[in-house]
Amino acid sequence: MKLSIIILTRNEAKNLKDCIASTADLADEIIVIDGESTDNTVEVAKSLNAKVVIFDKWQGYGPRRQDAQKHAGGEWILHLDADERLTPQLVELIKNELSKASGNEIFAIPRATYLLSHRINHCGWYPDYVLRLYKNSYTHYDDALVHEKLEVPKNAKIIYLKEPMIHYSYRTLEQYFDKQKTYELAFGENKFKKGKKVNLLSIPFRALFGFIRIYFIKKGFLDGKIGLWLAISVAAYVTNKYLALYMAQNNEKLK
Fold it and tell me: For site-directed labelling of 91, which of 6, 171, 202, 208 has its Cα 20 to 30 A away?
């Protein structure tokens, strides 16, 4: 069964080589969908024999994954981010599962995520199953700007794999906060377009619940200082994303 691996990139030259290398024993086709990188991401991809498609208009992660799938010739699709790595054990497991698949399976892959140099085992970050492997003709991603989800048909059989992929989510604080800012603004825009509104006075309570959820409910305290730091940063993220929504609705009222 031919497998196409799709990797979305923008300025991922430092990550891309190791990501592609981890797929060497699995991929029949590697497609790099680049969003106008200003580093040498495209050159790295081409040097590794990946098919490169460049999009200059950003419409969100969901639409980008939909467009990417149209360029895939494989019977099966596996989506990866450049900061993710397949392990040899996971590669063998995927091969075994696909050899007996009938076509309506969607495979959920757990991710072992690293924040800076710390593996996060709690905080709701593990096993962090993601639906990434499915038959090309069977389904596709939704239209969400961020936090896109795979459309799951009613007759789908979700199979939860045991072997995790490695996810080097944020190697620096600058990278972490830059990504959070992107998510915050996209959240506000997306929710506003859907007609959602927020009461300004509710935002501190939402932030407090965000902290409680990560640190206590999801047992972030078991991750030590990094768990506390993450819970605090999540509270800040919740605050900012709802402020982005509030500002969007407020600006609309002023027009």
Answer: 171
